[in-house]
């Protein structure tokens, strides 16, 4: 079976004040403001080709509005439309959105709104198309400046059901699971075409919960640099810099000014997963080490703090 | 009493500490080595919800974590609430804050749902 989803394309996240949010997301995180339109702002990282990867929406609460996954080919959108029909999942066709064409929008069992789309403007990254240097010169030197969005972790009241939905209907494949005593997956790390540890992960929790969304940071040095910038700007760090046993990624969990958790993720050890390889299994006994490798136990806020 | 410096009394522990002008209940508690439950510290997650008797400025909080009704009923998010007079606070079930405090249990008290892990 071919991969049909190329990556997590965008997340739309609620913030309580758009001005304060933009100050944080552009000056501290180092995203580029594409455009502010009404109560929304569209942002992207410096190395992304597509029009945007983060949408901030002013609201009276924090949390996730929707997540968009971009397909590999245009026909894949129709493929998933058929698939949703076949599984009797209600969906809407959204003919267009900001700098984007058609998307199909539906709700997954955990209550989250997902969109699948292909057409989106591709303005390119911040480098020339011809003979580029490896990084742009005009980045803010004291911002984190991640090159790309990486993945999203959501919470589900019935995680096993949500995992199954994402595997069967959306055709995600698992790199790693936490299984319960009956051998059922209660948490999963799911990937598609990029064959990275994950585009989407699911853990138990409230419906519609956004545990975090993550940006890639590649080297250990960059991770510590990011942590420095967080401290300089008095950003609340939840955990890290540390290492996950699951995904082997090095990360930092921190909060935006409204309590949405963000992660810098990646590091020198995040792997590629070969299709057909068996998922890695963690148990309820070993999951502490799985989530927080050095601490070897879940920090208290992991299962109880999210938007 | 100096402007903005108020007494915060944690019940039923019966511990009294003071906040600095403009300081949140959570910051004042942590400065006094009292580990009130907290997570995001930005009014977004709701884990720091406590009961408060007395006037506070509720601060910038997510409405789905602290509703207007809850404000009227005497709840606040300690990470955002700034006392406007001497106040009395307690955990939402009135239990004593001690070593047996359990985030998962408090989470189910607040959200009425259990985490499976
Ligand atoms: S600590 Fe998250 S709302 Fe107060
Ligand atoms: Fe993550």
Walkthrough of the structure:
The complex is a heterodimer of chains A (307) and B (117). Chain A is of the alpha/beta class. Chain A has two domains: 5-117, 2,3-Dihydroxybiphenyl 1,2-Dioxygenase, domain 1, CATH 3.10.180; 148-302, 2,3-Dihydroxybiphenyl 1,2-Dioxygenase, domain 1 (Roll). Chain A has helices spanning 18-28, 75-86, 159-168, 220-232, 287-291, and strands at residues 5-15, 32-37, 40-44, 54-58, 63-71, 91-94, 103-107, 113-117, 148-156, 173-179, 185-191, 200-204, 209-217, 237-243, 250-255, 261-266, 280-283. Chain A is globular. The model of chain A has no long low-confidence stretch (mean pLDDT 96). Chain B has 117 residues and is α+β, with helices and mostly antiparallel strands. Chain B has a single domain (6-111), classed as Roll (Ubiquitin-like (UB roll)), CATH 3.10.20. Chain B is globular and about 50 Å long. At the A-B interface, loops of A face helix 3 of B. Bound molecules: FE2/S2 (inorganic) cluster (FES) and fe (ii) ion. FE2/S2 (inorganic) cluster binds next to loops of chain B. Chain A: Its cofactor is Fe(2+). Chain A: Homotetramer. Chain A: It catalyses: catechol + O2 = (2Z,4E)-2-hydroxy-6-oxohexa-2,4-dienoate + H(+).
């Amino acid at each position: 079976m071919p991969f049909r989803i190329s990556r997590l394309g965008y997340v739309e996240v609620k913030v309580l004040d758009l001005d304060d949010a933009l100050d944080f997301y552009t000056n501290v995180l180092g995203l580029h403001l594409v455009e502010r339109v009404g109560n929304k702002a569209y942002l992207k990282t410096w190395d992304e080709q597509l029009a945007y990867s983060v949408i901030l929406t002013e609201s009276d609460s924090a949390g996730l509005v929707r997540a968009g996954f971009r397909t590999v080919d245009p026909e894949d959108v129709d493929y998933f439309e058929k698939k949703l029909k076949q599984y009797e999942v209600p969906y809407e066709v959204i003919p267009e959105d900001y700098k984007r064409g058609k998307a199909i929008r539906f709700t997954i069992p955990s209550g989250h709104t997902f969109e699948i789309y292909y057409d989106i403007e591709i303005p390119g990254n911040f480098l020339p198309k011809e003979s580029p240097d490896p990084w742009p010169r005009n980045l803010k030197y004291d911002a984190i400046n991640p090159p790309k969005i990486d993945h999203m972790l959501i919470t589900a009241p019935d995680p096993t059901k949500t995992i199954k939905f994402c595997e069967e209907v959306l055709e995600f494949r698992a790199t790693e699971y936490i299984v319960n005593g009956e051998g059922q997956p209660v948490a999963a790390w799911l990937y598609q075409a990029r064959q990275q540890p994950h585009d989407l992960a699911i853990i138990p929790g409230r419906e519609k919960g956004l545990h975090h969304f993550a940006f890639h940071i590649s080297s250990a040095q960059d991770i510590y640099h990011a942590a420095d910038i967080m401290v300089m700007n008095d950003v609340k760090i939840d955990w890290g810099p540390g290492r996950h046993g699951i995904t082997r990624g090095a990360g930092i969990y921190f909060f935006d000014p409204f309590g949405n958790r963000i992660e810098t993720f990646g590091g020198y050890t995040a792997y590629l997963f070969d299709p057909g390889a068996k998922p890695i299994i963690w148990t309820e006994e070993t999951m502490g080490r799985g989530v927080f490798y050095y601490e070897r136990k879940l920090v208290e806020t992991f299962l109880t703090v999210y938007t | 009493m100096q402007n903005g410096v108020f007494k915060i009394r944690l019940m039923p522990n019966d511990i009294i500490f003071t906040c600095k002008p403009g300081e949140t209940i959570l910051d004042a508690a942590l400065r006094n080595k009292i580990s009130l439950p907290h997570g995001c510290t930005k009014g977004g997650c709701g884990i720091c919800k406590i009961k408060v008797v007395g006037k506070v400025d509720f601060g910038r909080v997510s409405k789905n974590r602290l509703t207007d009704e809850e404000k009227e009923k005497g709840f606040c998010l300690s990470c955002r609430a700034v006392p406007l007079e001497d106040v009395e606070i307690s955990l939402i079930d009135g239990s004593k804050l001690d070593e047996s405090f359990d985030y998962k249990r408090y989470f189910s008290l607040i959200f009425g749902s259990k985490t499976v892990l």
